[in-house]
Amino acid sequence: MSLIALTAANITRFVAFGPVKVMRVHGFNNQGADSYIQLHQKIPDSIAAPLATGNVPAFKSLLAQANNGFMYSFLPDGVLLSQLVYGISSTEASFTAVGAAAAVDCTLDVDSLYLTSGGETITGDLTTGVDSIAPWTDSVANVANRLLRVDYQNHDGAIRYLLLSTDGGTTNVPIINNQVDSGGTLALEFGRQGLQCVSQDAAFAGHYGCKILQSTTASASGITSSAASYIKALWR
Predict the structure, then answer these.
(1) Predicted pLDDT of residue 170
(2) What is the rounded distance in angstroms from the CA atom of residue 221 to the CA atom of residue 177?
(3) Cα separation of 173 and 37, whole Å?
(4) Which terminus of the chain is less hemmed in, N or C, by CB atoms within 10 Å?
(5) pLDDT band at 222 (very low <50, low <70, confident <90, very high)
(6) Other C-beta atoms within 10 Å of 65: how many?
(7) 64-110 tens-digit pLDDT
(8) Chain centroid to CA 64
């Protein structure tokens, strides 16, 4: 169990990038107006702004009455979500951000192997057609980087393979390849510690990059140029 402490400055927070159980939500609203605590099930496109106006929460909004404490308990089983973004909204049905520093003091009791640490970066999105993304380059200076999650949508109209390469994607065998049917989706999660993208080539040279590519084959020989599919990566 982990405690996520949030203050009036935390209007939104990307909490978990994989399965998470919310066990309790408690705190105090010292503002002069009621607000709503919202639990959204999504991987954001931006760490700085993980929620947009109109986003609908996965779970009914929880009322935080003005100048009052609150406690919501979901024990013993908790509320299971595939991901979690927290938000404080002035409206119940969908997200409308409250004013600056007008959120509430709140603690989330959660259970998850996929909690964010605050040092994450998002590369790519699920609205822009691409054939590849490169979260980081092939350099020994990047050996400490970790890949946390990859989301992929195949819009190429045929079977495609999603490859993970450490050398830029054109020479050596990819360290991961996954077949995805036409119109299919893929989500790869690598846990809180993430995947270290390191390999060695036939000449025993080390490679430390992270490039995610779409291919017509399970190797780099079929890399596409259609720029139709969507790829997004979360890493730190």
Answers:
(1) 66
(2) 13
(3) 47
(4) N
(5) confident
(6) 12
(7) 999 999 999 999 999 999 999 999 999 999 999 999 889 999 999 99
(8) 27
On whether the CB atoms of residues 221 and 169 are closer than 8 A, the answer is no
Helix (H, G, I), strand (E, B) or coil at 69: strand
The two three-digit tokens of residue 88, written as one number: 């404080």
Distances in Å between the Cα of 123 and the Cα atoms of 16, 41, 48, 75 are 17, 19, 13, 36
As its CATH architecture, domain 2-112 has Sandwich (2.60)
pTM of the model: 0.90
For residues 197 and 210, is the Cβ–Cβ distance under 8 A?
yes
Q: Which two tokens stand for residue 80?
A: 């299971």
Q: Which amino acid is at 121?
A: T
On the question of a cis peptide bond just before residue 174, with omega within 30 degrees of 0, the verdict is no
Strand partners, 166: none
